[in-house]
Write a structure and sequence with these properties.
5 copies of one chain form a homopentamer. By secondary structure, chain A is α/β, with parallel strands linked by helices. Chain A has one domain (3-137): Rossmann fold (3-Layer(aba) Sandwich), CATH 3.40.50.960. Chain A is built from 4 helices and 4 strands, in the order E-H-E-H-E-H-E-H. In chain A, helix 1 links the parallel strand 1 (3-9) and strand 2 (31-37). The A-B interface holds A 8-18, 33-38, 41-42, 44-46, 48-50, 52-54, 70, 73-74, 77-78, 80-81, 84-85, 88, 106-107, 109-110 and B 72, 75-76, 79-80, 82-84, 86-87, 90-95, 99, 120, 123, 127, 131-135, 137-144, 149-154.
Chain lengths: 155, 155, 155, 155, 155
């Protein structure tokens, strides 16, 4: 069994960690390590600590971004931090960010957050199986947070 | 007891370090190490030195950004520096940046700076307790510098 | 013989890895190592693992970006991750990204993806031959995904 | 006595190093090491060399940016380079950048460059004294290149 | 004698390496090492390899960027890669990028590319002489790719 880190925030208006933990428990016997930080930009170092101190094999980083330009800048900075963290650790982080402007009501936001988190929790489980575990879905237009787009139609 | 670094600037129009130091003293017995630099972009290396030379366990980085596009660019560069610093040190930095265009009078700016600094000082104290100390607030829509937004309403 | 990594995504609506693998097999006897991840931003660490764990000599990173501003931000973050990865590994990654807004129908997208992937697979094979293997084409206005522009006309 | 690096450019239309060197000599007995490069983007590695080969304790990086969008991109890249450099060296760089669009005549540009360079040369001297040397000015709204803004007025 | 790396691309519509090599041969006895890659974003790791595998003392990185927003993003990513590369190697890279939108005809583009490349090849030769070789031109408003602007006029 592997160990999956689940990093989440108090900024988020949805308890996304619950979706991640539920999906992992339902679909695997992997251990789970939780780490809650204030906001998105605190996630990269939390992931680094989950890798190095807690020996996680993969981390699911859960965040919610506000609707303003400064919020996009924050999510960009957090994403770059997650890139460096992965390259320093040689391990995957599933970035699950929900943007407040993806929908215009709380109900929609909840659905996106749930769908995106659960699908990426499954992706994390697949990646732990090896580099070709997801190859059967390559080029299939998979989406998280909404319906799959599917492959292009050329006929 | 841990050691908390408080890094602040002469550029800021508000002595944010006072709020941070007051909150830490009131709510903990942690040691405090102060480091004052000219501006935001001098904060990342100050934090690095606070971690490596002064052995701080966490740092609160306090900065104020002007209202112009070049100021947003500066805060973006400072934020990325703080990301790298955290990943190099494997320790948290609470980024407490106030933007001059968040409000249109000095009084409002002061309130935002005070509220954001004090709440993040408390966050720092919580993070020192461990990775799940903040989990009870996960997904609660916590905000610093203004009222909490609270969790989504789906019913 | 060298080992070429082929990293691709389930997000892409086209199985770009097939084009890359077909071109490599047709034009060389290099070994191929496949790695499929969910999306673009998962490619950099996959490339890093292909270099370090699978001993690849070069990697072809295949991704498709959506048409929205947030998608451009994602591809920018992925590109920066690929830059760091290459500098850490001292090995080339051929970045083959297709943007949904490069054309307005699935057929066109398919042609761009096929042409760009195949040409960059050939570039990877050339780079494995040495630092001057491509010098004969220097300044020739080569393009991937569309017709070459050719050198400037100054007469 | 410490050693202060002064890095400047041939791109700049003002000999900013003269202001820096004059201020350092007038206010301290620190040694000075000069490094002149073509443009802004050559400054970060010059600073790195000043730290590692010339053993500078702090560097003042002097640059001038043109007025076009591509010039803003250049100064952003240079600033990020300076961030990494500082974090790698654990030493401060005073970034003194003047932007051609800050004013509309040569005379104004000269005044900004002189004022900003001299004030940051003094900041460098202060930082060499220790982490709290500037704390007496914390939150005072200090500015370089123009008049101080001063602290907020809340009464 | 030192060794100068010349990195160029097949994407460029002008054989900029010829200008660089011609200028180096005419003005010095330095060795030259050539490295041709597909595009701009392949230059940073090529420079890294020129430093580490080929022992170059300095590199001239020659690239041409297209006129679209995505091309600006590419050149930004390449520039950041060059920044990191220099900081990792402690050696200079002369970034010589030509942007297709700097002029509106092939002839003008050729002149810019030739002028910028030749001037930066001379800059590389000067930097090899030491940190103050260019100090005599500090603040002189030197430009590459066009006429020098010269120092500000304050009288």
């Amino acid at each position: 069994m592997a160990k999956i880190g689940v990093a989440d925030t108090t900024f988020s208006r949805i308890n996304m960690a619950e979706f991640a933990i539920g999906t992992i428990k339902k679909n695997s016997k992997h251990q789970i390590e939780r780490y809650t930080v204030p906001g998105m930009k605190d996630l990269p170092v939390a992931c680094k600590i989950l890798f190095e101190k807690y020996n996680c094999d993969i981390v699911i980083a859960l965040g919610m971004a506000g609707p303003k330009p400064i919020d996009k800048q924050c999510s960009h900075e957090a994403s770059l931090g997650l890139q460096w963290c992965q390259l320093m650790a040689n391990k995957h982080i599933m970035e699950v960010f929900v943007h407040a402007d993806e929908t215009n009501d709380d109900r929609g936001l909840y659905q996106i957050a749930k769908n995106r988190t659960e699908k990426h929790a499954l992706n994390a489980i697949e990646l732990l199986k090896g580099s070709e575990a997801l190859s059967k879905y390559a080029g299939m237009g998979k989406r998280q947070g909404k319906e799959d787009e599917g492959p292009v139609k050329t006929k």
